[in-house]
Amino acid sequence: MGVIVGVLLLGAILAALLSNSDPFSPAKFFLASYALFCLGAWSQPRDVSVWLMLLLVLLVGVITVAMESVMLRDETRARGWFMPLRSIDRVRAIRWVWLLSLPPLLAQFAVIRFYGGLFGYINILGNRVLEFRGMGWLNTLTSMLLVMNLLYFAVGLLEKQSRRWWGGYAAHLLIVTGIGLLSGSRSGVLSVFAMQAFLVHYLHRRVSVSKAISLGALLVLAASALGVIRDGLKVDDGQLVTGLSAGERIFQTAIFNYGVEPLEILSQSRGLELTLGSTFASVVTNVVPRVLWPGKPDTGGVVFTKVYTGDAWGGASNLTPTFLGEWIINFGWVPGALLFVLSYTAMLAYTVRLYRRTIRHAQQDRGVDTAIDVVRYVCVLWAVVGLMVGEFTNVVLGLVLHRLAPLWLMRALIAPGVLPPVSSAGTAGTD
Which residues is 240 bridged to in the sheet? Predict the structure, then answer.
């Protein structure tokens, strides 16, 4: 069965490359993510039921390849994507980027101070799921920084900038990566660099397939190494200790099983305790503080961990069920599988249409609103594909609150009439 899935995956990748030359298209990103998160499936014998579920997920990718081919036709084959620049008020945009970055910075400093300083904060990262409970609003603020940085970068790509301008951006990037490291999340550190590649590709210069593969491999290695560093991270007698201190390993391979392990746990379960859609409803109820509603529905990751792993980490961590797994634990094997295919195909169809509109916009207009549109598309693509191995509520709320809402706010703030026009002449970092 593994051979069949492997051959189908390779065939789908080949078809995606032949039907659309863009290496960053939705179908290719889906298939590359599938290969990354499910690679571990071929490392040892698996039950047939696991392979069937993996085949179902891959089927959605195959459908996406077909949809992309039909929707785009020859639109992305042209070499000359970029139209002449039009005048943009980058001063207005970057001013608001910095202003909107201040609340997240203050929120991060408040959290560090709450735990008694930097060393105290580092020592609680291993139990951050428990420690940060009730601090969702702070997480929302700090997570906004990434999309602000992406917009900063996108505006810079619209036309040639000075060294002082890029120096200002480098300072903002340093802040974002620093807070990403403090969050204990590998994606908080590395996502910005992967997303930058998408922005370069669509706003500045097309990135070749070989360079895209090289960058992807480098980021995977970095994520694996950061996973080891994060394990055992603490301050002991004033000395910073990381997972590397044990010297047993340099890289972590868990990432290659993100799409496999939850499905294997499901296949080995004695029975399903159906939640009948409550984990999906948590996307609405999750914004209500638990002190006001103690019995509110749990998210998919919490339910999956409690019921199907026996609460393996005692609440200190949760295992995401994957999007397919979440449908199954809600509605059962057959209805869940069918609803998964229908819903995920619809999401990816929307993403392909958004991709097509974004490319057209980038070809016809080079203003700040174009930069916002491209950043929005990258964030939507990242969330939809990430849902493959993620938790519905976490992914959707993260997309809406941490990505789309700040972009909507930025679009309103930089609209004509919000601020008086500012000449770039004599403005620090913008000449």
Answer: 235
Residue 406 host element (H or E): helix 405-413
| Tokens 């970055």, located at residue | 101
Q: What is the pLDDT of residues 298-346, one digit of tens each?
A: 889 889 988 888 877 666 678 889 999 999 999 999 999 999 999 999 9
358 is written with which tokens? 């974004």
Two tokens, residue 316? 């200190």
- Domain edges within the chain: 2-72
Q: If you average pLDDT over residues 60-70, what whole number do you get?
A: 93
Mean pLDDT of 238-267: 68
Tokens of 30: 């889906």
Q: Is the dihedral of CA 309, 315, 319, 323 positive or negative?
A: positive
| Mean pLDDT value of segment 422-430 | 38
- Measured distance CA(386)–CA(299) in Å, rounded: 16
Query: pLDDT for 6-27, tens place per residue?
Result: 999 999 999 999 988 888 999 9
Residue 80, both tokens: 């000359």
Per the listing, tokens 């970057």 go with 94
**Residue 426: partners with Cβ closer than 8 Å, 6 or more residues away:** none
pTM of the model: 0.85
d(CA 103, CA 402): 13
Give residue 136's pLDDT: 59
Six-digit token string for 374: 């491209």
Extract long-range pairs of 220-223: CB within 8 Å, 24+ residues apart: 220/36, 220/255, 221/251, 222/190, 223/186, 223/190, 223/255
pLDDT tens figures, 182-227: 766 666 678 889 999 999 999 888 888 888 888 888 888 877 766 6
Q: Per-residue DSSP letters for 213-271? A: HHHHHHHHHHHHHHHHHHTT-EEETTEEE-GGGG-S-S---GGGGTTTHHHHHHHH-S-
